[in-house]
Amino acid sequence: MSNNFQLTISQLSLRYLGFENLALENISAQSRGKRIGIIGPSHAGKSSLLALLAGIAGKMIPAKFSGSVRINGEELEAWRSQHEIALLLQDPASQLSGLADTVYDELSFSLLNQGKSDEEIESAVKRVTDQLDLTNLLDQSPNQLSGGQTQRVAIATALVTEPDLLLLDDPTSQMDPLGRQHFFSWLEKLSCPFLLISNELDDLAALCDQIWVIKDGCLLMADSPQTVFNQLDDPAFDKPAAWKMAKKLELKLDGCYPVNARELKEAAENAN
């Protein structure tokens, strides 16, 4: 797809059938950049937003929505008909087919459905398993994997078809610290646009072009990590560790407290 990515949401509201309260209420936002982090308390509406973008809410899950969503100027439905969106769910095990004997077979499944040749499948599987350090798991049963391994395999199933937009719902929740570090390092190299729900604030602040803040179905802020974490004043939201350290030491960069390790280091060097 083009290097340009523009997601525009206008007065978007979503209500699941059988529920009185809105899951999303009058959300309007415009992306800046290709990497969007989404933060908010549990049940804030974050997953509902990804489900709507992926076409699950309103189709697989009965729901009604109003407002508009456009990607690169096209209505969402029209854009989806010509492009592939991959969604990684909160429960990685539910992402897997349950039919595959090995991890290789699991990763091949969607490619077979696309009519890919054996050579194309082998190449695509090798690419994604090299990226996510899964090569040593290819002959294992998906049912015998640890939580972190299952999460990485689920991510690989989302990526193996080379989607045009990646939606990630708390993808590191079952990873150990090293696995999380490797994941965010890999994500930094990814060219595909993504929306990422995560509680890893320091990683989001270092990686994302924009942070969307959602609470009680409403969008509170949509701005750069520097602006969001310096201006957001709500006890429901934590701050990155880099911001806390900078505030403690009264280190500022361009009039704001740094929000990631790189900025904190630069501010400390400037202060000396």
UniProtKB/TrEMBL annotation:
It is found in: Cell membrane. GO terms for cellular component: ATP-binding cassette (ABC) transporter complex. The keyword Transport applies. Residues 7-241 form the ABC transporter domain. One of its GO terms (molecular function) is ATP hydrolysis activity. InterPro entries: AAA+_ATPase, ABC_transporter-like_ATP-bd, ABC_transpr_CbiO/EcfA_su, ECF_ABC_transporter_ATP-bd, P-loop_NTPase. Its main location: membrane. Keywords: ATP-binding, Cell membrane, Membrane, Nucleotide-binding, Translocase, Transport. PANTHER family: ENERGY-COUPLING FACTOR TRANSPORTER ATP-BINDING PROTEIN ECFA2 (PTHR43553:SF27), HEAVY METAL TRANSPORTER (PTHR43553). Belongs to the ABC transporter superfamily. This is ABC transporter, ATP-binding protein. The lineage of its organism: Bacteria, Bacillati, Bacillota, Bacilli, Lactobacillales.
